[in-house]
């Protein structure tokens, strides 16, 4: 049976460390880290994620700046808001919740975020640096960073291992594979056009599942003893729940946990760590700002 990695517990430990550092910054410099969270429209899932982020800020003493824009807002207006946040000295991190409505070009908006405040690590310059050998971005994307942090804290070494990333999205799959490569893994990326993904996944010492397909990865696809990090957050109908749904990952947990060496649950795995890495990036951004302006 696999060791189940308790992302919630690890996240809690790191959050107390962050809260302590926030207290020290505030005492020493009279400044607290500030995170701006921009949300456009009223998608249920986005509102729930944004709510979690703002709540976590409040718990840690990080000041959150809320920018809530209507669905129909123009791209120019979103960019104007980003520019104002870029210029605000109390804001050390800017997050524009994705996805944006179809009429707004995401890349254009993300490119306008000051790279010094790009706590999501989604600015093309930060991603470019992530992709280059010997270069380091100012911020690492939160979910990939969360995955590696969970591996590290579970004692799973990455160097020289076969790592397979399932999914190639800009926000998880691609940066996760770049981060694994930087950590000296041998990396394969499996995606919707891959022939026989299971035969590639079976070779993996480390699997990062980020395909957005509920329970697509079966127990028989997992190499015995592998470390399985499940990024999937899929809502599936469940009439026995008050909400009418429950969250499942991209991995069939019941099956895979019998074969794997380590596995993360959904919920309570990568999710809480993603939010924690955002808070950590915001703290780091504030520390960098204070170091440069004192
Ligand atoms: N600019 C941007 N940055 C993001 O980081 C970003 C984004 N856009 N768009 C959407 C995705 C999704 N995402 C999650 C964060 C936390 C949980 C999380 O904490 N999940 C809990 C479950 C929460 C529940 O019960 O609903 C868990 O897994 O335990 C999940 C998903 C961040 N994203």
UniProtKB/TrEMBL annotation:
InterPro entries: Aminoacid_DH-like_N_sf, NAD(P)-bd_dom_sf, THF_DH/CycHdrlase, THF_DH/CycHdrlase_cat_dom, THF_DH/CycHdrlase_CS, THF_DH/CycHdrlase_NAD-bd_dom. Residues 141-288 form the Tetrahydrofolate dehydrogenase/cyclohydrolase NAD(P)-binding domain. GO terms for molecular function: methenyltetrahydrofolate cyclohydrolase activity; methylenetetrahydrofolate dehydrogenase (NADP+) activity. PROSITE patterns: THF_DHG_CYH_1, THF_DHG_CYH_2. CDD domains: NAD_bind_m-THF_DH_Cyclohyd. It catalyses: (6R)-5,10-methenyltetrahydrofolate + H2O = (6R)-10-formyltetrahydrofolate + H(+); (6R)-5,10-methylene-5,6,7,8-tetrahydrofolate + NADP(+) = (6R)-5,10-methenyltetrahydrofolate + NADPH. Residues 5-120 form the Tetrahydrofolate dehydrogenase/cyclohydrolase catalytic domain. One of its GO terms (biological process) is photorespiration. One of its GO terms (cellular component) is cytosol. Pathway: One-carbon metabolism; tetrahydrofolate interconversion. Keywords: Hydrolase, Multifunctional enzyme, NADP, One-carbon metabolism, Oxidoreductase, Photorespiration. Catalyzes the oxidation of 5,10-methylenetetrahydrofolate to 5,10-methenyltetrahydrofolate and then the hydrolysis of 5,10-methenyltetrahydrofolate to 10-formyltetrahydrofolate. Belongs to the tetrahydrofolate dehydrogenase/cyclohydrolase family. Homodimer. This is Methenyltetrahydrofolate cyclohydrolase. It comes from Canavalia gladiata (Sword bean).
